[in-house]
Amino acid sequence: MVELQRIGAHMACLAPVRGRAKVESGSRPRVGPASVATVLTTYRRLLTLPGAASFTVAGFVTRMPISMIGLGCVLLITRSGGSYALAGAVAATVALVSSATTPTLARIADRHGQAGLIAGGLAVETAGILLLVGAVRWHAPGWLLLATAGLIGVGHVPVGTLVRVRWSHATVGTGLGHVAYSWEAVLDEVIFVAGPVLVTLLCTRVAPRAGLLAAAAIGVVGGCLLLPQRASEPPRSTARSRSAGPAIRHPVVRGVALVSFGLGGIFGSVEVAVVAIVTERGQAGLAGLVLAAFATGSMVAGLVHGALRPATRVARRLVWTTAGLTVALGTLQPLPNTAALAVVIFVAGLAVAPSLISSVTLIGSTVPEGARTEAMSWLSTGIGFGLAAGATVVGRVIDEYGARPAFWVPVVAGGFAVAAAAFTARRSPAPATGTAVSRG
Question: What is the domain partition of the chain in residue ranges?
Fold first, then answer.
């Protein structure tokens, strides 16, 4: 489901203070079964908000490359005669540089608006991709490939975060913030199912460079669609919100960043462990199907989650969803065959989207709108570093002990996420104390 580029994340927000306090402190709505008609009606209401359909489609297209660039780098280099070690280093460089720079770029968006950041970032990212393709074509030394990868990472704009902040502004007073970010979670899963398939077909059937060039072209087209939509941008930060300093100083932001680091560790280690175990069983061709089951579980949960009205506090919900994910992952290690693995990993995937949605809902309820882009970007940063750490650790475990023990790595990462969620829940403000943000 995920690779090193999966750092864009799934976001959520909330309704105005008065409505929110009424829901969370007084008569809480019960969670009932959501029929297909209920789900469709809920999302139809969401997409008919002014400008909503336009910016969510544009955002979808613009962030499609995040699921293509990492794999595209690997396929470009290896199918051009380079080593897997160099290809992996290039892909990791893109992901790590992107993770490190995302909060800074998000802070720029908070202060100066989204349009300039999108235009400038896409220009730098596209230039980096073209330079990388040229460097591979002319057999440049490895350090130059790593430098171009760093340029791609610097130019990577956190489009998913920018779109979700637009939703937080667009859904004010509608009660549809929760639905909006469930919708975006589903789109993320579509991206990470379709993107790798597209880039693989292009690199293997057309030319090794075709996948990355297509990713660059798709990003530019999406940017051209998103840039004119200035009316849906949220207000820029005020001097008061800027004086508060970096968003990471907020205890809830720090806690949620740690949760996302654990979730990233799960994503990075599960992908490698699944490939290793099915390969060990002589069924390497089924790895994609098993990982697709993980993504499908998350996609289904995201759709249903948006149509429900959970009664529990979001901080408590984050603890429960990460705990459920961890428990499900703990049952993967002893499973006897690949079919059972696919079924259980689908069940584990049901907790992924709710965990990510709850993470950003918590940030949306505690961080002022003028700093929310930066605050939400720390989720992407945490996931990015977690992905790199999880993939590295699980690889060493597989080399030393084999594929089966590798499934304990995502369990450990999940335990870390649960502990961080519990830590965050203790420090999150009570929902009825008036600490919620008045807009978004």
Answer: 17-21+42-427
Whole-Å CA distances, 73 to 3, 90, 92, 96: 12, 7, 10, 14
- pLDDT averaged over every residue in the chain: 80
Hey, what are 149's tokens?
């990868």
- The pLDDT assigned to 124 comes to 96
Nearest to 159 by CA among 215, 114, 190, 126: 114
pLDDT confidence of residue 429? 66
Fold of 17-21+42-427: Growth Hormone; Chain: A; (1.20.1250)
DSSP track, 347-371: HHHTTHHHHHHHHHHHHHTTS-GGG
CB of 229 within 8 A of CB of 59?
no
Q: Which two tokens stand for residue 132?
A: 């990388």
Q: Which residues contact 398 (CB under 8 A, 6 or more apart)?
A: 272, 273, 276, 406
Q: How far apart are CA 374 and CA 380, in angstroms?
A: 10
Flag residues of the chain having pLDDT under 50: 1-34, 240, 243, 431-440
What does the DSSP assignment read for 152-175? HHHH---HHHHHHHHHHHHTTTTT
Residue from 303, 176, 230, 181 nearest 51 by CA: 230
The predicted model scores a pTM of 0.73
